[in-house]
Amino acid sequence: MDIQTTNTDTPVIDVHRHCVANPFSTKMGRVARTVLRLRAGLHERDACTTVTVKGITSILYPELMDIDRQIQEQDQAGIAISLLSFSMSLEMFSQVLPLPVLGIAKRLNDATAALVARYPTKLNFLVMVNPFQESSIGECERCFKEYDAKGISIGSSWQGKFLDSPQLNAFWEYVEASGMAIFIHPPLVPIGYRQMDLYKLEEVVGRPFDTTMTVGRMIYAGVFDRYPGLKIVLPHMGGGLPNVIGRLDFGYRLGYEGLPAGQAARCERKPSEYLKSNLYVDTMGFSPTGIKQCIELVGVERVLFGTDYAAVPISPREHIDIIKSLGLSREAEARIFWKNANDLFKLMHLGHKANLHGH
User: Fold this and answer.
1) 251 lies in a domain?
2) 152 lies in a domain?
3) Would the CA dihedral through 102, 105, 110, 113 be positive or negative?
4) Which helix (H) or strand (E) holds 289?
5) What is the torsion angle, in degrees rounded to the nearest 10, for the CA atoms of residue 273, residue 279, residue 282 and residue 284?
6) pTM of the model as a whole
């Protein structure tokens, strides 16, 4: 892809974008719709569609299933390239559809690749898999070779299991060897959901908590010590991690003597040190203060632009304006808007247009 500059005077890459191709356009899709209505409380309306899983109702806005509308919004906002992923749909469909998880993943990845093919200069995608299945490695390889997918997207948990599980050792080994970055996204229904059935708390509080819990466990379990080459991108400004990293550190400093077998942390360094060696965060959170905190904690070279559009149908332009309001240097803005993402996901070819702006 060639760089396209915008009215920000720099390219913009959105690493946190969601779109679902029409899953009901085929015979199998129509069967899936019926199953979803029975098992997941699917209700289709003009204004929005809702789905109810485990008593939690989530809203699926029309923009989420309309790639043409999304591209119009992307162009108006001044975003050059977006990375599509929607790992939470894989986890949700796997709970309610009577199909093998790998088969569902293949269908979702193929459908997403078809969306990219319609706008190949403006979109790419991340392979969506269940890392608890070793067969997912083959699916990653297939999508890298067939579709030139740029990375991997997995859930922060899978039906109650977090990513520090030893079941993922083969997956982490593969990912580290491949050099691909991973985008971790929380599931539709996060851990602790039973107390989140009001006010969309599962979305605004529960999902960032799910991310925080899984990363805390990965750090303490020594995942990043065993696989130091892992590159993990966290959405929602790192979830709650920036606000609890000091607590993770003091747990490490106090030590774990006296805990029962199997409950002591095994990380080799202070938890905060992994923020600048293995972890990246995006800017989605509608908080200038939060982004400043992320820059201070992980470094500007580890902050990536992300919008959560169109699961959150608020113009991506608002996120751009927040970055522009921070008073950062030109180079720092360029790092957040596109350079960091391009370093990780290799999306753009650096042509003469970039040189015109000193990038």
Assistant:
1) yes
2) yes
3) negative
4) helix 288-298
5) -70
6) 0.92
